[in-house]
Design brief:
The chain is an alpha+beta fold. It has helices at residues 4-19, 55-70, 120-138, 169-186, 232-242, 249-263, 268-295, 306-316, 321-328, 344-347, and strands at residues 24-27, 33-38, 44-51, 80-81, 90-94, 97-105, 110-111, 195-198, 207-209, 217-220, 227-230. It is built from ten helices and eleven strands. Strand 5 (90-94) and strand 6 form a beta hairpin. The two termini are 34 Å apart.
């Protein structure tokens, strides 16, 4: 669905036929095809279009959102609007392609990304709210949650072969080192971590703040990447975006980690892998972007964070595992890497063929 005019025409017809609704569509950001719908009555909705979505995945996302919405943690989430047939997903064929559309209630608020450099209050709110979400979700066994997808941090290595798609030799070398850090720090440890259902995409577009002066996060969008995973992966994903616009990313990350730990105490094993998981997320971000450039280099939303991801990856890879891990954990009272004389080389041995299989 590349032609915006034709896309809007097709989606307007879908709104009328499937939902009995008229409205003006405005393209939004995001990885997929997202529109704001403004109706003549003044109501607003969000229309999300993805490639064919299974009923199981749609139900998983709906169930996770309901769990968070029903919990007394001060967060609102979008509510799914069924079509006239009572179905959550409406299939649409356009330009020879079948896609899945869903309609959600609109949440007011200012996106984190629109507020510039995050304040300590914003960083602390992110830590507290994400920890509360993880406590709500982690204990639930939701059908379909034991899935994987391109952004699954336990499978970050699936993107390693795409390093060759990065044109700059210096960046390819950086990426290989970063993938190595993720592989040797995480794959052998990951099955010993606490696992549960996570949101999986607390990025700076999905976090809403009702009153910017307070920095308090009040809304959480898009449960499309939720899955059963090591719970600390939720924190690692959020840290990627929390660090983007800061002069001292590890110090900013420490604000988030400290606040998170105050609500959901982190195990020492989780703090040991937190920094490598952040690096792994950045590896996924830039390799997926490199792959997508071959598909549609002019896509309006796919590359918004690409250069920021490269910049942050370069800065973080100038730190070593010990220093970075301890700085992120500095407000928790725990020391993931005590000064026992071990070198980074000893902590991160060479990768061996046949790394441990990660099981959900």
């Amino acid at each position: 669905m590349k032609n915006t005019t034709e896309t809007i025409s097709a989606l307007s017809l879908l709104l009328h036929d499937a939902y009995g609704m008229e409205g003006v569509l405005t393209r939004l950001g995001g990885e997929n095809i997202n529109f704001r719908v403004d109706t003549p009555t003044g109501d607003r909705y969000a229309l999300k279009v993805v490639r064919v979505l299974s009923s199981e995945d749609a139900e998983l996302e709906r169930a996770a959102a309901v769990l968070v919405s029903d919990a007394p943690i001060g967060l609102t989430v979008p509510r799914l609007m069924p079509n006239r047939s009572g179905e959550a997903v409406t299939q649409l064929e356009h330009e020879g392609e079948v896609v899945s559309a869903r309609l959600f209630t609109w949440l007011d608020g200012t996106a984190w990304m629109d507020l510039g450099k995050p304040t300590p209050d914003m960083l602390a709110s992110l830590g507290r709210k994400l920890a509360a979400v993880d406590l709500v979700l982690a204990g639930e066994e939701v059908p379909g949650a034991r899935r994987t997808h391109d952004w699954d941090l336990t499978k970050a290595g699936q993107h390693r072969s795409k390093t060759i798609l990065v044109p700059e030799a210096s960046r390819r070398s950086l990426l290989e080192s970063a993938f190595h850090l993720w592989a040797v720090a995480c794959t052998e440890r990951v099955n010993r971590l606490p696992w549960g259902l996570i949101h999986g995409d607390a990025n700076d577009e999905n976090l809403l703040i009702a009153t910017p002066d307070t920095g308090e996060i009040t809304g959480l969008l898009d449960f499309g990447d939720c899955l059963y995973n090591p719970i600390v992966c939720d924190l690692a994903i959020a840290l990627e975006y929390a660090m983007f616009r800061t002069e001292h990313p590890l110090d900013a990350g420490a604000f988030v980690v400290t606040a998170y730990h105050g609500v959901r105490p982190l195990a020492l094993a989780e703090l040991e892998v937190l920094f490598p998981f952040v690096v792994g997320r950045l590896c996924v971000s830039v390799t997926v972007a490199a792959e997508r450039r071959r598909v549609d280099p002019e896509h309006p939303n796919w590359f918004d964070t690409e250069e920021r991801s490269w910049g942050l990856l370069e800065r973080l890879m100038n730190s070593n595992l010990v220093d970075a891990g301890n700085r992120l954990a500095s407000g928790t009272g725990l020391v993931p890497f005590p000064p026992d004389g071990a070198t980074v080389g000893e902590l991160l041995p060479q990768e061996e063929a046949g790394a441990a299989e990660i099981e959900p």
